[in-house]
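ok posting inputs for the flavin-adenine dinucleotide job
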Amino acid sequence: MSSGRVVIVGAGPGGMAAALAAHRVGFETTILERYPEIKAAGNILNLWPPPQKVLQLLGVNTNDLGAPVHSVFANHRGRIRADVRLPDEVVREYGGGFIGLLRPGLYQRLLEALPAGVLRVGHNVTGFEDNGRNITVHVQGQPDIETDVLIGADGINSLVRETLWGNEPIREQNLHLVGGYLLLDGTQPAEGVISHDRDTQGSYTAIRHEGRGGYEWWVLRAWPHDKPFTEDLKAYAARYAAPFGDPLVSLIAQTPSEHLQRWLIRDRKPLKQWSLGRATLLGDAAHPTSPYAAYGAGMSIEDGYFLARELAAVDISDTGQVRAALQAYEDRRKPHTAKMSQLAYQNGIMFHRLPRPLQPLRDLIFDHTPFLQKVIGDQMPADIVAQLSEIEDPPAPQ
Ligand SMILES: Cc1cc2nc3c(=O)[nH]c(=O)nc-3n(C[C@H](O)[C@H](O)[C@H](O)COP(=O)(O)OP(=O)(O)OC[C@H]3O[C@@H](n4cnc5c(N)ncnc54)[C@H](O)[C@@H]3O)c2cc1C
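and the output
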């Protein structure tokens, strides 16, 4: 077993998964979360098989965590443009493709798995210093905390990232998403349909939450990031969902108003280097990703697993070994996370910000050639299979 101290800033999905992974290999692990309680900021969520596999390895109960969904990309009239079909053995193990769930359901399962004493809420980190041998973390109104390794899992506006690498501007995508969910009795078809008309994405997937089924849906369109939004969310979603017809239209109509939310879509350009000295980043702090990928939370969960695995292989009292481990971690994670976040960014432009004269041409290609099947329908399963094979615990020592 490893020894030494690991402090994680932020108790989102990435921070909690990293804490589980670090604790599991023997580190004295602490999460510092600024808010007085752990509350999921948001509701709708999908998780692909690789983060599901990590959660299982970390001892998180994934039983009935979400609805196993087979997903397709379509146009607003229902014409299939890409079918995301995973290999049979992956479908058997993890369900149809991704699972559809609610964010609070994931947080609850992560919290249940966290050992007592690891999480400290109401701890707002205000700064830190790395003296080469260890790191001193400053927490508002609390005594300083010393650690051997500091992990910034503090989201898109990461203080750890800014302290290490300065303030890089947020990339406003000038898109917004209005989404919601409803829980229903009985069984629902395990399907997810991601569909687009000329300038709107109107999508829905089955979900499970606390033993009940239902649906989550979202409507995504261009919207200037600095323009105030005052319209009723449901009326707005219903208006732009109308061309998609049922079931989207009726799902929106049945959604209780308190289950609707709106987000501006933003990310940052991939960072060249994440780690410095004894500190590193993970999840949105390292690679904020537009919801177009439906993979930001998934990648943050995977990051924590790979990071703990590298740290477990070295003596973290030795600064040179810590640096090498952090570098190995980010070298492994950067290509995949940069690819996903850039793809999500480009998809946002392609579907919503293309000049008007090019839009019919784009849709002609998407509707009548195998282009989307190749770049999404075939590529995503290949990426998922590759990620799954990387997530393997090393054999136990003899
Ligand atoms: C509308 C929408 C839909 C999405 N859908 C999906 C999806 O389907 N699938 C998917 O995988 N991803 C999805 N994402 C992306 C996903 O939500 C994020 O990528 C994910 O939450 C990142 O997790 P994280 O742990 O890195 O950071 P966060 O979830 O942002 O957590 C950061 C934590 O750090 C804390 N913190 C910040 N600063 C400090 C400080 N100074 N001191 C102490 N604590 C601090 C915060 O309070 C917070 O708890 C979606 C995002 C949006 C907006």
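notes: The mean pLDDT is 95. The CA atoms of residues 22 and 308 lie 5 Å apart.
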